[in-house]
Amino acid sequence: MRLRAWIAGFRWLHEKARGGALPPEEAQAYQEAREDLAAMLVAAQRLTLNPGQTAREALRVVRILPLELHHATGPVRAETLDISTGGFSAVLSRAMQPDEAVEFSLRIGTGPVRGRAKVANIQQQGAAIRVSFRIEGLSPADVERMGSEVMDAALEQLAILVEAT
Fold this sequence. Notes:
- This protein is an alpha+beta fold.
- It is built from four helices and seven strands, in the order αααβββββββα.
- The chain has a six-stranded antiparallel β-barrel with strand order 2-3-4-7-6-5.
């Protein structure tokens, strides 16, 4: 099967799943296709999976979303640079400490995801600071919503590439 046809078929399944119209007999095929797409993109990104981690869990996609962090010094508004099912990154103007915990609210297409995250990585970029956060303790429903948002972003980016060729 050609890649364009595969992506079109997956997009169709993904839209059905997002709309809650995926019959049980298609659910397994959808889950497998989602993992296959994530595995292809993780390989393209040259990411390494941690033991026990799925490609879907490792996949990061560029996605600019409104973000509010509830820091000890007050709320911080920012936008994400990228997201995954387990975290996000943003450019901040104030420094944070490694492993520092914050409450967050992230506005995705299906509504806000609220929770707790810890600083996973800090990179100075000129006057700005890129901070990566690892989300902790999300409900399975919110993890699924984050996974759908990641797939939405991946499909949007693939559509641009596929349409350009």
